[in-house]
Write a structure and sequence with these properties.
This protein folds into 2 domains: 9-87, no CATH class; 90-157. The longest helix has 15 residues, at 41-55. The radius of gyration is 20 Å and the shape is elongated. The chain has helices spanning 9-20, 24-36, 41-55, 60-69, 74-87, 90-104, 111-123, 128-136, 150-157. By secondary structure, it is mainly alpha-helical. It contains 9 helices and no strands.
Length: 158
């Protein structure tokens, strides 16, 4: 299993128990893999977080959720996210994602398209205040309709 992809300790334990049952051999195998250095939640979390930030352009909140879904020990999640964003600046990443999304949008934006854009950036794990700063810094993203303001969108996003 480890030859295909890396696993967190709890994720591999769950997979082995599902396949072989709750035998003592599963615990022995996990202990032996940890002893040999094949299983290490800290290294796994750092590698996985850096990969998600660099390759999938996800924000810190989404990376935390992904690490929790991989059953990584909670004490390794925040340090791994910090290490990932030492290499990649989160605001620059947000700007790149926003630029990529703007290529597919027709300007000028309606209120609903602007709301949809902000929601998609929130789902990618970026902070709402960073999103609003990035959107406000771009004059081309000023919505056409004046009945709903960017502040209304900000309230809905948080």
């Amino acid at each position: 299993m480890l030859a295909r992809r890396p696993y967190s300790i709890a994720e591999l334990r769950r997979a082995l128990r599902r396949k072989f049952g709750a035998h003592a051999a599963v615990q022995d195998a996990i202990a032996r893999l940890r002893e040999l250095g094949y299983l290490d939640d800290k290294k796994f979390a750092e590698h996985y977080a850096a990969s998600l930030a660099r390759n999938r352009a996800l924000g810190s909140w989404r990376i935390r959720r992904e690490l929790k879904a991989k059953l990584v020990n909670y004490r390794f999640i925040d340090p791994a996210v910090k290490v990932a964003f030492e290499e990649t600046d989160e605001r620059e990443l947000l700007e790149r994602v926003l630029e990529r999304k703007l290529r597919t949008l027709r300007l000028p934006l309606s209120q609903s398209k602007l709301h949809s854009l902000c929601q998609s950036l929130l789902r990618r794990g970026f902070r709402s205040d960073d999103i609003m700063k990035a959107v406000r810094a771009r004059p081309e993203l000023k919505p056409v309709a004046d009945d709903a303001s960017v502040e209304d969108l900000e309230e809905q996003g948080t």
